[in-house]
Amino acid sequence: MWINRIILKEFILVGFSVYPDIQTFIFVVFLCLYLFTLMGNVAIMGLTWVDRALHTPMYLFLSALSFSETCYTMTIIPKMLADLLAKDRSISVVGCGLQMCFFLGLGGTNCVILTLMGYDRFLDICNPLRYPLLMTNMVCGQLVASAWAAGFFVSLVETSLIFRGFFCNPNLVKHFLCHMRAVVKLSCLDSDFTKLIVTVISVSGLLGTFMLIILTYIFILSTVLRIPSTEGKQKAFSTCTSHLTVVIIHFGFASIVYLQPEASGGDDTLIAIPYTVLTPFLSPLIFTLRNKDMKNAFRKMLGKVVVLDK
Residue 135: which of 156, 114, 150, 121 has the closest Cα? Predict the structure, then answer.
């Protein structure tokens, strides 16, 4: 019993090593998705910064979401890609704690920002006359700062609970990142109790933000249905479709990770791929391809580049 209570200094991320024959293929696919994710988010942030027509709360929230998702992917994917090619998949306990803290903090920040984007659409559609007074760029910045504070407050609480004690052998984390469900099993303390508390906190935050978004869209829908003209209804809905699509994808994939029972053998590697890799990839794609203002800003930027080249 005492042998198993050796103080661990590092973990081994098992990750995709259980699929040795397709690791190169997985590396190529994830690298392409990661590069497209970075390009999409950088494009959104760049267009919002350059085009003054996009200096509105809606696009400032979108730019904040793109920045948060960029940081989120940088916390996870570079290490995952390196481990796909390396034989040494170790990570220090401190490094594991930092990765978990940023993974949870940025994930929570994304949820809160998506909620704020829904609140912004609610004010714009349901209170159009008061919207310019209630949602200024300064208020938008304060709300984004609050989203980061809330996300990392919850993250610090969860990470502190998991890393408050020692970890027992074996030091194998059955995941490609330091995910809380995989790491908490290695705790020498009562891992079942810690897992329960951390899961309750995560699920409460996830469901809480999702229910707030649903509530805002109930008010939006009731307001839109009272608009007499079909054109007016379509215009109101068009400002919400991209956000609503991303919300469905984001919270749908997140529910797979946090609401489903553990996979057989405790390996949640494949279950986490949609939330950690696909969601950040799809989000900028949806916001750029389904948004008329973004497409117009992109065309204007291309036009300026062509003129400069001439």
Answer: 121
> What is the CB neighbour count within 10 angstroms for residue 96?
25
Q: Which pLDDT value is given to residue 1?
A: 41
| Tally of CB atoms within 10 A around 42 | 14
| Nearest-angstrom CA–CA distance, 266 and 275 | 18
Q: Which residues are CB-neighbours of 162 under 8 A, at least 6 positions away?
A: 97, 100, 180, 183, 184, 187, 194, 198
> Tokens 């303390």 — which residue?
189
Residue 263 pLDDT greater than 60, yes or no: no
Is 274:256 a contact under the CB 8 Å cutoff?
yes
Task: Report residue 3's pLDDT band, with 50, 70 and 90 as the boundaries.
Answer: very low
Query: Region 89-100: what's the mean pLDDT?
Result: 92
Tens of pLDDT, residue by residue over 219-246, are 999 988 887 877 777 877 777 888 899 9
Side-by-side strand order, sheet with 10-13: 90-92, 10-13, 172-173
Cα-only R_g, the chain: 21
Checking phi first, is residue 279 left (phi over 0); if not, alpha (psi -120 to 50) or beta? alpha
Q: Is the pLDDT of residue 290 over 80?
A: no
Rounded to 5°, angle at Cα 309 from 307 and 310: 65
CA separation for the pair 191, 294 (Å, rounded): 47
Residue 11 pairs in a beta bridge with: 91
Amino acid identity of residue 27, one-letter, is F
CATH code for residues 3-300: 1.20.1070.10
Calculate the dihedral angle through the C-alpha atoms of 66, 70, 76, 78, rounding to the nearest 10 degrees.
150
Across the chain, what does the average pLDDT equal? 85
